[in-house]
Design goal:
The structure is a single chain. This protein is of the alpha/beta class and about 250 residues long. It has one domain: Vaccinia Virus protein VP39 (Rossmann fold), CATH 3.40.50.150. The protein is about 25% helix and about 30% strand. The longest helix has 13 residues, at about 125-140. It binds S-adenosylmethionine. S-adenosylmethionine binds next to helix 4 and strand 8.
Length: about 250
């Protein structure tokens, strides 16, 4: 079975099962209308700050704390979630590496990567996300290291650009019927090799344990394999962060 084969090849596998369902904590804040912190077994904190009741009702934070950094979030940009935190927590960027962050959103992976990387390219198809990520990069004084570009997947790159590390956190579809999202992930894996240096690593977050067999097959078809995997499946709501470190066969 694909599932069993996957577990044999993954040389590092962690399954978090908390003894109790984690509880989200809401708190009042002097400056903000409310804050929300997700309790989970990872080590990076995730706190959403809501400036006003309307933002709280829309579940759209204005500021998010990720580990030790605050990120400003525009009303129209996707905030960092537990899925992004897992990708951040298990990924490793080494001193002097070149990094590509596809679908950067508010910029968290590009900005954390820029602490070590010599150069980061961050892309997003949605121009307001790129503007938001630029603001956050300035806030953390790494804007000089990050080249922000608008466009679909690899369209903003040229074929001569090669990277040591590629981040991809655009959620895998909830259902098999979501063909547009399926095609996006298929396109990513069919094109990414062109932009990878030898031995480059892809840090990929997909969500949903049930998607593993499909992902395993998609990677196989494109000549990739899972080298490391971590997941957590006891979180509230519909979150099952699934981290993979992927390399070429
Ligand atoms: C779930 S958000 C994740 C943002 C960020 N990577 C994070 O972890 O916080 C996905 C982001 O991918 C962008 N996106 C969606 N489709 C894309 C595509 N075809 N090419 C580039 N970016 C895309 C969206 O605009 C959005 O900002």
């Amino acid at each position: 079975m694909a599932f069993q084969r996957l577990f044999r090849i993954a040389f590092c596998f962690t399954l978090y099962t908390s003894s109790a369902i984690p509880i989200n904590t809401f708190a009042e804040d002097n400056e903000y209308y409310s804050t929300w912190e997700l309790q989970h077994s990872g080590k990076y904190r995730l706190v959403w700050y809501y400036a006003a009741k309307k933002d709280f009702d829309n579940n759209q934070p204005n500021k998010v704390l990720v580990h030790d950094k605050e990120f400003l979030i525009r009303p129209d940009v996707r905030p960092p979630t537990i899925n992004g935190i897992y990708l951040l927590e298990y990924s490793r960027v080494k001193e002097g590496e070149e990094v590509l962050d596809i679908g950067t959103g508010s910029g968290i992976h590009a900005i954390f990567a820029a602490e070590k990387a010599i150069h980061v390219v961050a892309t997003d198809i949605y121009p307001p996300a790129i503007e938001n990520a630029k603001t956050n990069a300035q806030l953390h004084s790494v804007d000089h290291k990050i080249d922000f570009r608008v466009g679909d997947l690899f369209a903003p790159l040229n074929d001569r650009e090669k990277f040591d590390v590629v981040f991809f956190n655009i959620n895998f579809p909830f259902s098999a019927g979501d063909n547009e999202r399926n095609r996006l992930h298929e396109r990513f894996f069919s094109e990414v090799r062109k932009y990878m240096k030898p031995d480059a690593r892809i840090y990929y977050q997909t969500s949903f344990v049930k998607n593993i067999p499909y992902i395993y097959d998609m990677l196989n078809r494109n000549g990739f394999r899972i080298m490391e995997m971590h997941m957590e499946h006891m979180l509230p709501y519909r979150h099952e962060p699934l981290f993979m470190m992927i390399q070429s066969h």
